[in-house]
Every structure is written in structure tokens, then in C-alpha cells.
Automatic annotation (TrEMBL):
Belongs to the TRAP transporter large permease family. The chain crosses the membrane at residues 56-81, 93-111, 140-164, 170-195, 216-237, 243-262, 274-296, 316-346, 358-378, 398-423. Keywords: Cell inner membrane, Cell membrane, Membrane, Transmembrane, Transmembrane helix, Transport. It is found in: Cell inner membrane. It is a multi-pass membrane protein. It comes from the Bacteria. This is TRAP transporter large permease protein. The lineage of its organism: Bacteria, Pseudomonadati, Pseudomonadota, Gammaproteobacteria, Aeromonadales. It comes from Oceanisphaera sediminis. InterPro entries: DctM, TRAP_DctM. The complex comprises the extracytoplasmic solute receptor protein and the two transmembrane proteins.
Length: 434
């Protein structure tokens, strides 16, 4: 048996047996090293795991995880919901439109879909239920809208992509994700309004409109967070990693002194929770380094890319196949695992066809965003259904409906790369091909 095949079989077999993704990656890489190179090369395991996480931009990941926790519990979502209700007013589908708008704004703070899903669901689910929305629909809508956090800068997923793909400017990725993220969110608006009107959800005569001026003033500290982060990046005042530090500091100030929802005890608890979540993420990244080093040294990724090229020499055919593959992977794996497993295989294909790496990274992120609320795994759905107190399978029909609407946004960005590339080009970031 070839080392390539053995490495992939060990990884796949471990996953089927229920071994955590991190350890399945490490076992697959170690098996490939033993058979394809030499048992003596196992001495490189420590170096590879260390080198995988000893990268300055990765500091931003635990910090943005902490940022998501802070804004989730600082009362930010409640102030944004009230402001959005003042903007939209009572109407059929009004609360659904509020959900999408708030999720887009929250995505500009945390970069984490599950964190946004938890924060928005806690605030919106009770009011949506009182307005007549079915809980499965509300849970699916919040899960799908919060998935846009993977696109709206700052995005943890895009940070990881910039690490895996050499030479990609993270600032360009952040800028490129803005319009596709807004497009993905807007793709949900019309279906939500139509469904609410068709089913008679949320009687406009029974709703009340909060005072616009008062709600805007209360939401201003929350609204300023994305401006601070993105404005600092654009002006060169701080790097993406430093932006994460600024986001944490600003979130603590807002939560403790402005909204007064956080205490020092809460902060200590969030530090521990962020540490545990970050530890899981870093373990995956470190052990994936073994898999990546073995696959690169053995030529496994090159061989897989050549096998895919043998299917067709048409770039668009392979692009569609890749998007289907990533969508299926998104139904089973988290975003971090997908980037670490699939991206090394796709780099040779990007180079062969001259695909713009920034544009391609946004396509991957949009696809993975859909996977965050598409069964069977659907991490965002797990969060919202748990808060709603319903079984996950009750949301499947609505989740698939929203999946198709967001895939339409993905197709538009695929057909018109300028949707993603226009803003980073205007800002002067490097977005050129290889």
C-alpha cells in the first residue's frame, strides 16, 4: 500500500471510529511518515507541532474568541436589537429582518458564528415566539444569519486561511469578505419577509416601534466596535493581531463601564472559557501540522491535485466540484478542520488555474458558512436549538431552505469576482494572482 493511501485511510478510519479530528490528523500524518519516510522521522513530530502554532497572526484567534464571549454577554445584542427594531418598525417579517441586521453587525465584532448565534438567540427567540414565528424557523434563521460572521471582518476563519495559504494579505481578505458577507445576509431578507407575510407571522398592528434617537444612543457603543476595528486596520494604526487586542479592550470597557453587564468575576470566567476553546483550536492546528508536513513531503497533496486535474481540464468544472466537496465537508466538520485538511490539496489547483487566492478564500468561507447551519453537524443550529429547547431535526427543512438562498449569493460571487475584490483593490491591498 502506498504511503499516500495509507495516510488518508488511517485519517478517514480514525474519523469513522469517532477519534477527534485533531488526533485523527496526527495519526494519519504519523502513519504516512513511518511507511513513506522512516520511523526515525517521527522525531520531527515535536518540531512540526510547535512550528504549526508558533506564528504571530495566530495570536489573534484566542483574542477574537474572547472578544466574541465579551460582546455576547455584555448586553450588546439587546441594544442592537432595539435599534434595529426602531429602524425597521413593526411589519410582517420585521423581527426576522432584525435578526439578519443584528447578526451582520455582531459579525463585525466577534468573527465567530456560534458566539453570535448564542447572543442573538437569547434576545430574539422569546420575542419571535410571542409574535407567532415557529421555533424551528426562528432557530434556523438565527443560525443561518449568524454564519455570516465567518465572512464579515474580523473573521477567525480568514485568519486561518491567511496562515495556510502563503503570501495572502490578511487585510485584503478582511476587506474582500465584507461585501460577500453583506450579500449572504441580504439573500435571507426577501425569503424571510415573504414567508412571514404568507403565513401571517407578526401582526404589524400589535408591534411597537422603539424611539429611534434613544435606541441609537444606547446602541452607539456597540455600533462603534466594527468602525474601530476596521478603521484601525484601514488607517494602519494597528495590525490584524493588534486589532484583536483593541477589540478585547474595547469590549471590556463597554461591558463593564457602559452597559454594566459584566463584573470582574464574569471576566475571569470568560478568560477561562476562551482559554479552553482556544486550546481545542490550537491542538487541531498543531496536530494538523504533522498531517500537512507528511502530505507535503510525501507529495500526497500534489498527487491528489493531479488526480482532480485528470477529471477535467476545465477550471469551472473543477471549481464546481471543489465547492460541492467543501459544502459536504462543511456538513460534517468545523471550519478550522476544513481549512487545515482541504486547503493544502487545493493550493496546487489554485496555482494551476491562476485563481486569485483572495477571491478563492472568500468562496471557501462562504461555502463553510453554509455548512455551519446545514445538518447533520451544524454547530450554529446546535446552539440555537439548545436555547430554543427543540430537537435539531425539527429545523432541517428551514435550514435547507436558507442553505439554497445563501448558495445563490455564493454563485454570484463565483461568477462576479469583483464583488469580493473591488474593495481590497480600492484600498490598495495586494490581491493579485500567484
Amino acid at each position: 500500500m502506498s504511503p499516500d493511501l495509507l495516510m488518508l485511510l488511517v485519517f478517514g478510519g480514525a474519523m469513522l471510529l469517532g477519534v477527534p479530528v485533531a488526533f485523527a490528523l496526527g495519526l494519519g500524518g504519523a502513519a504516512g511518515i513511518v511507511v513513506g519516510l522512516s520511523p526515525d522521522m517521527l522525531a520531527t513530530l515535536g518540531t512540526n507541532t510547535y512550528n504549526s502554532i508558533a506564528k504571530y497572526p495566530l495570536i489573534a484567534i484566542p483574542l477574537f474568541i474572547l472578544t466574541g464571549l465579551i460582546f455576547e454577554r455584555a448586553g450588546v445584542a439587546a441594544s442592537l436589537v432595539r435599534f434595529a427594531q426602531a429602524l425597521i418598525g413593526p411589519r410582517h417579517g420585521g423581527l426576522g429582518l432584525v435578526v439578519v441586521l443584528v447578526c451582520l453587525i455582531m459579525g463585525g465584532m466577534s468573527g465567530s458564528g456560534p458566539a453570535d448565534a448564542a447572543a442573538v438567540a437569547m434576545v430574539m427567540l422569546p420575542s419571535m415566539t410571542r409574535a407567532g414565528y415557529p421555533k424551528p424557523f426562528s432557530a434556523a434563521l438565527i443560525a443561518s444569519a449568524s454564519s455570516t460572521a465567518i465572512l464579515i471582518p474580523p473573521s477567525i476563519a480568514l485568519i486561518l486561511y491567511s496562515i495556510v495559504v502563503p503570501g495572502v494579505d490578511l487585510r485584503a481578505l478582511f476587506a474582500a469578505g465584507l461585501f460577500p458577507g453583506l450579500l449572504a445576509g441580504m439573500s435571507l431578507l426577501l425569503p424571510v419577509w415573504w414567508l412571514a407575510k404568507r403565513n401571517g407571522w407578526e401582526d404589524p398592528r400589535q408591534g411597537e416601534r422603539p424611539d429611534l434617537k434613544e435606541s441609537f444612543i444606547k446602541a452607539l457603543p456597540a455600533l462603534f466596535a466594527p468602525v474601530l476595528i476596521l478603521g484601525g486596520l484601514r488607517s494602519g494604526l494597528f495590525t490584524p493581531t493588534e486589532a484583536a487586542v483593541v477589540a478585547v479592550t474595547y469590549g471590556l470597557i463597554v461591558g463593564i463601564f457602559v452597559y454594566r453587564q459584566l463584573s470582574l468575576k464574569d471576566v475571569w470566567g470568560m478568560l477561562g472559557e476562551a482559554g479552553m476553546v482556544s486550546g481545542v483550536v490550537m491542538i487541531i492546528i498543531s496536530l494538523a501540522g504533522i498531517f500537512a508536513w507528511a502530505g507535503t513531503t510525501l507529495g500526497t497533496f500534489t498527487h491528489l491535485a493531479e488526480s482532480m486535474l485528470s477529471l477535467s481540464d476545465q477550471g469551472w468544472v473543477l471549481m464546481i466540484l471543489i465547492m460541492v466537496l467543501v459544502l459536504l465537508a462543511g456538513m460534517l466538520l468545523d471550519a478550522i478542520s476544513i481549512y487545515l485538511i482541504i486547503t493544502p490539496i487545493l493550493i496546487p489547483l489554485m496555482q494551476h488555474f491562476g485563481w486569485n487566492p483572495v477571491w478563492f478564500g472568500i468562496l471557501l468561507a462562504m461555502n463553510i458558512a453554509v455548512g455551519q447551519f446545514t445538518p447533520p453537524v451544524a454547530i450554529n443550529l446546535m446552539v440555537t436549538t439548545q436555547i430554543a429547547g427543540i430537537r435539531l431535526e425539527r429545523t432541517f427543512g428551514w435550514a435547507l431552505f436558507f442553505m439554497f438562498t445563501m448558495l445563490s449569493a455564493l454563485i454570484l460571487v463565483m461568477l462576479f469576482p469583483g464583488i469580493a475584490l473591488w474593495l481590497p483593490e480600492r484600498l490598495g491591498y495586494v490581491v493579485g494572482p500567484w
